[in-house]
Amino acid sequence: MGGDHGPQVVIPAAISTLQRHSDIELILVGDEAIISAEIAKHQFNDKHRMKIQHASQTVGMDEPPSSALRGKKDSSMRVAINLVKEGQAAACVSAGNTGALMATARFVLKTLPGIERPAIITALPTMRGHTYVLDLGANVDSTAEHLVQFALMGSVLAELIDGKPNPTVGLLNVGAEEIKGNERVKEAARLLTKTDLNYYGYVEGDGLYHGEVDVLVCDGFVGNVALKASEGVAHMIRHYLRQGFNRNWLTKIAGLIAYPVLKSFSKELDPRAFNGANLIGLQGIVIKSHGGADAFAFANAINIAILEARKDVPKNITKHLETLLEEQML
Amino acid sequence: MGGDHGPQVVIPAAISTLQRHSDIELILVGDEAIISAEIAKHQFNDKHRMKIQHASQTVGMDEPPSSALRGKKDSSMRVAINLVKEGQAAACVSAGNTGALMATARFVLKTLPGIERPAIITALPTMRGHTYVLDLGANVDSTAEHLVQFALMGSVLAELIDGKPNPTVGLLNVGAEEIKGNERVKEAARLLTKTDLNYYGYVEGDGLYHGEVDVLVCDGFVGNVALKASEGVAHMIRHYLRQGFNRNWLTKIAGLIAYPVLKSFSKELDPRAFNGANLIGLQGIVIKSHGGADAFAFANAINIAILEARKDVPKNITKHLETLLEEQML
Fold this sequence. Notes:
2 domains; Isopropylmalate Dehydrogenase; 15% strand; two-stranded parallel ribbon; 330 residues; Phospholipid_synth_PlsX-like (chains A, B); lipid metabolism (chains A, B); alpha/beta; cytoplasm (chains A, B); homodimer
């Protein structure tokens, strides 16, 4: 029910997912009447692979997390997360209110043993492929210990999803030199060198997009600002490019000729292809889709959920954490 | 002597500045032999308007600030700042080591009364013009009080330089809602509403490039990461654009046709036109040029120094601060 478009986007994304994966079933959680009506609009032979789980409430996109948590016990979000808790679903995907989703998921599923704070992680495009970045906004005052836990979770995710052994882990900082940074980052660096993680060192803001590391760790305040500033710059560049090509008939012709290149270029940086952030560190898989996602983007978020469920990311985080604790590296 | 190019860039920038401003004299600080040799390469009738002040040492671009401060008492940087201190120069412009420049300027000039920490401020391009952002990296653990001082300094600068009365001031945050953010930001917001500054509220990372406010305030860690991440994204987009147009002969022809538009577009976002950051909050004007600046960019940094000297930014900050203190708004 969540996001800017609700079932209009979720149902077509669900159908394309089922067409791609023959061994998957999906449970659609929300208002049964609305969901059924939306399903009826589509031609699809395998409709029995979509079950509907009714939920009588929805969480507003601007609703405070506390209100959702206390007052919306039958919201689509809550019911979906309950299904994960009860083992009826392997993962939950939502385009709803991020704060409410995180609060509800944390309350219902609880964090993994040894993980104090869940974090938001997603892959961002770089000049060499992609880099997993966390935390992107779940925690605004992370301690050095939290940053180390983020590093471990990011490393496990990158290794499992990309099949890359020993992914490099960097700490986002204001300079690459050892003396730079605030106390939290310096202490996190000290702690990370003691673990078995492939710690790379400090990475500056531009190093993220150079693809210096596989996993980049930061406090949620910093990560959120960096992510949104990046989106802002990309948006501004598109704005000025469009303006430039619309100036007069000559530039418009140039724009028409350049269009296929500009289009294929923006495909490589298409944020829809990167849709789907993981609320990592919970005893269950919860994927957050962008609220404005279209069906293509939402299907990508579902795909991430499938991948993570198959690889059992939460169990592997716990396993790696236990190893570190046993060998007294943490 | 500083930056990637030293006098090769500074001398032509100095000459073009003198050609533009007939009422200005410049003092070139550094190795006299090197500077004279560089000046000799240029045809310019008004060479007497450039004086050379010899300095026997230079600060390395990667040298720790403490080493520059203690061991380089005759560095070009130190001598130039001394000239400001002694009133022989109205402002200092350097493309050298940022940390060393800040430490030296702070040590020699001291902060303004009522200002605890100097900050780095610069104008960044937005979809509506430009926004002054501070702090960009001088302070990695700013308190709420520091953020309020930054807001005041930014507001004075924007008003004086752009002639815009009562510029809007925003706080960079992870969400626009009141409940969002860390404690420092929330406390700074509370304090700012009590001042006579035109406080706008919270601004998210993308809001910076939408030009939501005239002045955007943040901790130096956050500001530095946001700035560098922005540069990284812009660089990545240029990289993929170039790659797209270089794919084959068809795309190359499209690139040739689109070139004038792409070029004029990048002119609008040319970082060289925005070169020159102010080390604000000191008893004197110190402008930091990007280390990689060319002569055009360095001349822009000199131009900022001229503007700020003419408007006497430090004195006006003190005046505004006194008003706030007298009226018990701080």
